[in-house]
Design a protein that fits this description.
By secondary structure, the protein is of the alpha+beta class. About 25% of the residues lie in helices and about 25% in strands. The strands form five sheets. Strands 6-9-12-13-14 form a five-stranded mixed β-sheet. It has a four-stranded antiparallel β-sheet with strand order 8-15-7-16. It has a three-stranded antiparallel β-sheet with strand order 1-3-2.
């Protein structure tokens, strides 16, 4: 795994050269196998063990640096504008409580999805990401796609939480359903492959069809394109065993599945959702609509 030591400085004030930092991290159990590049383009090749998914990102490694050198750790604190008011719309019943929300979320498999958080951003301009985002992703060998998709990728490498963005207008029936696939259903994933699903697969669906393999890869038909104007941001916690089995069954190992298989942070769904929203709004403008659409095991939803 690649880590940029310059990126670590966003969170901790390091006063040590990068080779010494690499040695100190390795001695602390966060192994740096090699140091490549120079200056701001230095990259650590890391060997993060499977029991440390919390360290598979820049903030997690910065937290280790904070402990090693006894330095303060700056938190990730997204700055979001006041969201516009939620207009009267559909109702949803989560845990026995019916609320008026702009986009209902229905969780049919509560063991497979213990928490699901979403936010809506409207009137976004889809375009190339700012240079600082492109440069940082490029150092990690990540190909820039567009400002919305790159916001999710940046958040993944920054804080270790996989998220996904849907074209809101391509979600049929005006709701999200997390459920088991039906035998014989198909899903064309973002890599362009049509996948035959079974009841062992956990999917994110709209009212009509699957739109993503949970914790693994999103669907082609609801992806963000230059025509997208309205976006649903998703951040969820997916059962590690379910994701691992799906990933193997479909031969689909992704940055997202790699982390969910090892136990992604349950508590970070709100923070990661807000971080993606912040990055999208900074680069593409638009309007944040309402508060979080949040479901967690036991039934809860937070509204503005």
């Amino acid at each position: 795994m690649k880590i940029s030591p310059q990126w670590l400085r966003d969170f901790v004030d390091l006063d040590v050269n990068y080779h010494q930092l690499a040695d100190d991290l390795t001695l602390a159990g966060i192994a740096v196998e090699s140091v490549n590049g120079e200056g701001d383009e230095t990259i650590f090749e890391m060997d993060i063990t499977t029991n440390r998914p919390d360290a598979m990102n820049h903030y997690g490694v910065a937290r280790e640096c904070s402990a090693i050198y006894d330095l303060p750790l700056r938190a990730i604190e997204p700055q979001l504008p006041q969201p516009s008011a939620v207009k009267a719309g559909s109702s949803t019943d989560l845990g026995g409580t019916t609320k008026v929300v702009p986009f209902p979320i229905e969780i049919q498999d509560q063991e497979g999805c213990a928490r699901f958080t979403a936010r809506i951003v409207r009137n976004v301009t889809i375009k190339p990401s700012p240079e600082n985002i492109v440069r940082r992703l490029g150092l990690l060998d990540q190909r820039p796609i567009n400002n919305a998709v790159d916001a999710t990728n940046y958040t993944l490498w920054e804080m270790g939480k996989p998220t996904h963005v849907f074209d809101l207008d391509l979600l049929e029936g005006g709701k999200i359903v997390v459920r088991r696939a039906r035998d014989g259903e198909t899903l064309k994933t973002l890599d362009g492959i049509e996948r035959k699903l079974t009841s062992e697969d956990l999917v994110v669906a709209d009212a009509r069809k699957p739109v993503g393999l949970a914790g693994t890869m999103g669907g082609f038909d609801t992806m963000i394109t230059e025509k997208t104007r309205n976006i649903l941001i998703e951040s969820a916690w997916w059962d590690p065993v379910t994701v691992r089995k799906m990933s193997r069954r479909h031969g689909l190992h992704t940055d997202a599945s790699h982390r969910f298989e090892r136990g992604a942070d349950y508590e970070s769904t709100v923070l990661s959702c807000d971080r993606v929203a912040e990055l999208i709004l900074q680069s593409g403008g638009g309007e944040l609509v309402g508060g979080w659409l949040m479901w967690s095991h036991g039934g809860s939803i937070k509204l503005p």
